[in-house]
Amino acid sequence: EGADGTPVPTVKRPVSSVGVVGTGTMASGIAQVFAQAGYDVVYVGRSQEKLDGVVGYVTKNLDRAVAKGKLDEAGKDAVLARLTGATEREALADVDLVVEAIAEDLDIKLELFRDLDRICKPGAILATTTSSLSIRACADATARPADVIGMHFFNPAPVMKLVEVVTTEATDPDVDETVRALCLATGKHPVSCGDRAGFIVNALLFPYLNDAIKLQESGAASMETIDTAMKETKLPMGPFELLDVVGNDVSLAIQETLVGAFGHEGWQPAESLKQVVAEGRLGRKTKAGFHTY
Ligand code: CAA
Q1: pLDDT at 250 (0 to 100)
Q2: Which end of the chain is flanked by fewer CB atoms within 10 Å, N or C?
Q3: Ligand 1 pocket test: which of 159, 210, 234, 258 has the largest number of ligand atoms within 8 Å of its C-beta?
Q4: ipTM greater than 0.90, yes or no?
């Protein structure tokens, strides 16, 4: 039995190779997680430059671990050797599990799932790390909805242990169990959740982050004061710091999805959130967001 009383999951569909689609922060982090846990990883991006970005991200993190004495050079090389980049999705034909982390846009995801359905071998598990879009819509873009599941990692993926495992009515229970077992095998903590916009964490976290911006807009307190106050409640980061880590474009997209799904008037995205996105101040990844880096 696990800590929450549920049976410890076992791998029902053997997984030794993992495909990651995307080259952004989440995709890079997820590729690192699996490579570090000993899986062979094929990661797919649109250009060699983007593929190089994934290696750069992972190398930087591994170098930091080496500098801290937590990993030796041989261990670093072994992790990097398990990563294979490809610019064609056809490279995913033989993997046992695909985790996609491409743009948070339903049409783009649906086009990808149609491709995965065409390319991947029978029995492959097709997972999305969407943070707020419908898993069922992705599943229904394929002729194998039983193999489709949500596997929602958090940013930064190599550090954050939580993974929301999101099933639909169509998901094969063996797929659910295998994915939860894989989470444990990669040192993650899976929680099970239904296919509802925002799942657990984002449905609760983003209205709070959005409200933090509106509080600042009201003139009640500065960004710095709000960040400091919330950190005093033992949250690891203040809301503006966390928005900049997640990315303001991603945060805006999530908030818009939540408004679309639940229609709460009070959840309309804050004006300053729309403004920083329009100005390209997307957060740490562009060296400026609410704060400057
Ligand atoms: N990538 C890889 N490793 C990183 C990292 C990164 N971006 N940032 C920090 N780390 C590592 C550090 O190297 C360090 O590793 P060791 O323990 O091996 O030495 C470890 O993480 C702790 O880092 P620090 O001591 O530098 O800093 P910290 O204690 O403040 O931790 C943090 C950093 C883990 C990011 C912490 O600030 C935190 O938990 N912040 C909140 C993050 C959060 O809530 N994320 C969820 C956002 S919502 C989301 O992601 C959902 C979505 O769909 C968008």
Answers
A1: 92
A2: N
A3: 159
A4: yes
How confident is the model over 15-52, as pLDDT tens digits?
Answer: 999 999 999 999 999 999 999 999 999 999 999 999 99
- Cα(160) to centroid(ligand 1), Å: 7
Q: How far apart are CA 293 and CA 289, in angstroms?
A: 8
CB 293 within 8 A of CB 254: no
- For residues 62 and 124, what is the distance between their CA atoms, to the nearest angstrom? 29
Residue range 119-167, pLDDT digits in tens: 999 999 999 999 889 999 999 999 999 999 999 999 999 999 999 999 9
| Residue whose C-alpha is closest to residue 127's, from 34, 206, 201 | 34
Give the distance (Å) from ligand 1 centre to CA of residue 158: 8
Name the average pLDDT for the chain: 96
Residues in the chain: 293
| CB within 8 Å of 108: residues ≥ 6 apart | 102
Our answer to whether residue 264 is catalytic in this structure is no
For residues 163 and 223, state if they share a domain.
Answer: no
Which of the listed residues 194, 211, 241 is the one where a domain comes to its end?
194
Question: Does residue 161 belong to any structural domain of this protein?
Answer: yes
Q: Exposed, middle or buried, 37 (CB in 10 Å: 0-12/13-18/19+)?
A: middle
Task: Identify the residue whose tokens are 């710091």.
Answer: 241
Indicate which atom in ligand 1 lies nearest the CA of residue 250. Answer: 54
Domain that holds residue 250: 203-286
